[in-house]
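User: Run a structure prediction on this.
Assistant: Running it now.
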Amino acid sequence: MNPIRMLELCRRGQWDVDRDIDWSGTPRSMSPADERAIVQYFVDMAGIERVAAALFEEQGRRVTDKTMQAIFATFVDDERRHAIVAERLAAYYDVRKLERYTTSPSLVTFSHHFVRALRYASPETANVYVTAGELLLDVALLRSIDDFVADPMSHRAMELVNRDESRHIAVDYYMTELYASADYQAWLAAQPAPSLAQRVRGAWAFANLLYAVGPFAADVFVRPMRLVDPSGRRIHEALKRFQMLGEKPDVAARPFMRFANGFRATASHPVVGPVFVAAMSSFSGTSLVGLLGEHLSEDERREARRMTIDELAEDALRAKALA
């Protein structure tokens, strides 16, 4: 990825919620149950997009390269615009006014702990968070909701949102490679070590985030995907791409990815795995079997190690077109 070229794309790719989307249409007819579900999904999507904006804002503060700072600033604008679109879509499909919709409490709790954890997370850990989130949101959730709604209004809005998200994923992969590089690791090794108090506060913030992520994932990803993608194919494809990224040796050697890969290996173990998953599900308050398990074959693991970061990013973007 060429950062200067990407910045040009980011600036040219900006769009306006009112100018570029015609909100004057009529929603297709839905059952009351489907209407409730879709409106709630878009309400929660607005909350997710605002969390993403906060994350990109934090990333922009932590990079020193002016071009990357400018790129992340456009991403913050993108995510805030996506939040407005999601709110407008929720209002558009709220035809019957069946209830008063609010952001899911688990998303509110997760957002609080996530923002706190960001204060102590390293830049590379923050990038892992955003990469996983963008893959789940873009490859799986948004496209599945759009297919389920099957309405021209949603199609047009999601087309524009997905165009932005494609740029985000390309940069996520670029930053992953940068943070795993020998040059960055040499720079990191020369930095002062965090104090004991900082490490304790960081560990506590991360523990709270782990506790909050289960209910959040259930309400905002797992249950919605059961309705809009009952086969589970898209969430499998999203998790598969994240696990492929974690197969790159330099990336796999980083602390957070070691943690994530160790989590997955333990969950997939034929003897220890069921006990571990049950314990984690009890701790987090939801079933995490599908999220914790292995999504790669041995051939795919070998292929992922062979591919370049750019090829992995292109593969992730192609996954968005999968049925």
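The chain has a mean pLDDT of 87.
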